[in-house]
Amino acid sequence: MWLKLCFLLLYFLLLFVLARVFEAVVWYETGFFATQLVDPVALSFRKLRTILECRGLGHSGLPEKKDVRELVEKSGDLMEGELYSALKEEEASESVSSTNFSGEMHFYELVEDTKDGIWLVQVIANDRSPLVGKVHWEKMVKKVSRFGIRTGTFNCSSDPRYCRRRGWLKSTLIMSVPQTSTSKGKVMLKEYSGRKIEVEHIFKWITAHAASRIKTIYNSEHLREEWNKSDQYRVKIYLFANLDQPPAFFSALSVKFTGRVEFIFVNVENWDNKSYMAEIGVYKTPSYILRTPEGIYRYGNNTGEFISLRAMDSFLRSLQPEVNDLFVLSLVLVNLMAWMDLFITQGATIKRFVVLISTLGTYNSLLIISWLPVLGFLQLPYLDSFYEYSLKLFRYSNTTTLASWVRADWMFYSSHPALFLSTYLGHGLLIDYFEKKRRRHNNADEVNANNLEWLSSLWDWYTSYLFHPIASFQHFPFDSDWDEDPDLFLERLAFPDLWLHPLIPTDYIKNLPIWRFKCLGGHPDEELPESSQDSESDSESETREVSSSEREGSEDDEPNTFHGPSAGERRCRAQPCSCASQYCPSEPYEGKAARSYGSYSTTGDTEPDWAAWPPEMLHCTECVVCLENFQHGCLLMGLPCGHVFHQNCIVMWLAGGRHCCPVCRWASYKKKQPYTHPQPLAHDSPS
Questions:
Q1: Which stretches does UniProt call biased (Basic and acidic residues) (predicted)?
Q2: DSSP notation for 102-152
Q3: Is the separation of the CB atoms in 319 and 404 below 8 Å?
């Protein structure tokens, strides 16, 4: 995860450097930067009208270029970046979708229940034609969509009862605007009553109602009172301009940031005394002044701070974000980081996408789970001070020059998604190249594996895990009887071989305990037979993968108390082994230990050293696979059921596909509940 985070930060750094390169190229070719001011006198009439439409100022009654130019100057300074964005937006001519409402519930859910947006709905009465024709309606939709105003059409034929209850007996236009200045307040519906059904007149009606929500100041005394007043709003933005009403983008933002930022319009058209404006630091008009508890910030002096809806929306979101804004940002970052797995993972193409899907699901699930307690904590009243300090940190950090560069780059790359995706793909291919070069020396098989080989290995693993999951050989308590009988019963159902045997990995063999068979007072190593030494060397070569820690753990275990045969017990009459002990299944002695099977006989001082055996293993002296006695120094291996065999014999038995004990048929990969030795009572006396 940290590697992906580093790669993502490196990608953001690459985007930042690339944006500066683009600025240098534009400056070299044209001789100006995006923050350079443009003189409206040098612009054509078409470009001036485009700027006014993007800012949301009506120009239908201004036929002269001089009047249009003065209106542009009154609304704010014009930069090269804003002019370029406005011209590109006009050339794009993308079709904007409009909602068709199916009934009352659909209308209520989208329009009346939406508290932070403006809706323009055309109502078509029964057996009536629409108030605005199709061509003019498409122009209207495209014009108002620049300012975040959503549009829709409600046909009364789909729900005539609701239209009658509302009084919509003729075709009309309905505008939905939040009624109060609080977040999630009530919504009021206004009906268009104008006589002229033209796009410009309808747009003026929309902007007039939207501007009525903004507090307007007409004199210096009112400004002084408002400037020194302290209320619920921590952030206020003032527009000082010589206009009849604020631009449409300013009014639309006041609806979008309801309850977070207060928008105030200061009309200085008829002011004679502007001394108080100089006292608060406003020396020219128009000016966009942001007032926060930390001080005053003049909007428009840094990179990317254009007089447009998109630029100011990005600026205010960074200063006063909602929880939903932070969640969307974290969602984008997490998914960008998860997609890095497509390039970091090496091997088959299908493997890359499988890992990618798994990473996407994991990261998004963890993100949602981690956000749930955060949302709960934010509802606590004791965290108000923490919330205020967090917003203060946001305001300090996002009013810097570096933050303005980041916002400008965000707007640039979001308006050019093809460039963003291509740079991300190029960055990923570079990561893939270096990862492949780094791993080629370590694991060439993984890098060069094709899709078929990887799918085959995945299927083998899946079927093996599905049919016979490998149980852990770590010690943990068992309290259920289901571990004894059902698995053993299912194993025995596999005989005779009428069922298809599933594939079982043999990795568990390395975890089986291994030790050497020793006799007390036995022969030294140089006196062992040659065949015994050869078998011992072969056994050592086959068990090099066994960890030394497991072997040492087996040797350091406490030995069990061995109860030897009494004088009255019968001896095994068969030929003794090299350490004078033998397995005699036909003549077991009556007093044998509970953890041993078979009997043994001793001659002289040679008997097996049971202290070297793991405590959970049964005591025996013969391998039932090869029917040979254990020789001094030979390697033994035990199964989870407790039976012991020659290491070579049982490995060949298990590797041949018979994954069960030769004696009791217990599964060789299934841990069995360890047997507890019965301890003799203190008051029991020997018989």
A1: 541-552
A2: -SHHHHIIIIIT--S--EEEEEE-TT---SS-HHHHHHHHHHHHTTT-EEE
A3: no
Under 8 Å between Cβ of 123 and 167: no
Domain count, the chain: 4
Quick one: pLDDT at residue 457? 66
CB 103 within 8 A of CB 158: yes
Q: What is the mean pLDDT of the chain?
A: 76
**Same domain? 70 vs 108:** no
Residues 341-370 pLDDT 10s: 888 887 777 878 888 888 899 999 999 999
Residue 565 has pLDDT above 90, yes or no: no
Residues 74, 177 share a domain:
no
Write the Ramachandran bin of 665: left for phi over 0, alpha for psi from -120 to 50, otherwise beta: left
Domain boundary among 212, 244, 268: 212
User: Residues 14, 423: contact at Cβ < 8 Å?
Assistant: yes
Report CA 223 to chain centroid distance, whole Å: 48
Token reading at 600: 């043994």
Q: What value does the CA radius of gyration of the chain take, rounded to a whole number of Å?
A: 42
Q: Is 663 helix (H, G, I), strand (E, B) or coil?
A: coil
Give me the torsion for CA of 470, 476, 481, 487, rounded to 10°: 10
Structural domain containing residue 649:
491-521+606-674
Tokens of 336: 């960008």
Would you call 85 exposed, middle or buried from its count of C-beta atoms within 10 A (0-12, 13-18, 19+)?
A: buried
**Per-residue pLDDT tens over the stretch 490-518:** 444 444 444 444 556 777 888 899 998 88
With both helix axes pointing from N to C terminus, report the angle between 349-378 and 451-467 in degrees, rounded to the nearest 10: 60
Which domain-ending residue is among 398, 413, 439?
A: 439
What is the CB-side half-sphere exposure of residue 269 using CA atoms within 13 A? 13
**Residues 6 or more apart in contact with residue 446 via CB below 8 angstroms:** 346, 347, 439
Beta-bridge mates of residue 155 = 124
497 and 376 in a common domain: no
Q: Tell me which of 90 and 80 has the higher pLDDT.
A: 80
Give the per-residue pLDDT at 425.
Answer: 92
State the DSSP H helix or E strand holding residue 552, giving kind and residue range, or none if neither: helix 548-556
**Environment class of 347 (CB within 10 Å of its CB; exposed 0-12, middle 13-18, buried 19+):** buried
Q: What is the pLDDT of residues 599-640, one digit of tens each?
A: 444 344 468 888 888 888 888 889 989 989 988 889 999 999
Average the pLDDT over 296-300 and give the result.
Answer: 89
Q: At what angle do helices 417-440 and 401-415 cross, to 10 degrees?
A: 100
CB 85 within 8 A of CB 306: yes
- pLDDT average, residue stretch 99-110: 87
- In the numeric block, the tokens 């060069």 are attached to 448
Sheet holding 172-178, edge to edge: 99-101, 150-155, 119-124, 172-178, 187-191
State the DSSP string of 592-655.
Answer: --TTB-S----BTTBEE-GGGS-TTSPB-SEETTTTEEPPTT-EEEE-TTS-EEEHHHHHHHHH
Note whether 80 and 111 are same-domain residues: no
Instruction: Spell 571-604 as b/e; 16+ CB within 10 A means b.
Output: bbeeebbbbbbbbbeeeebeebbebbbbbbbbee
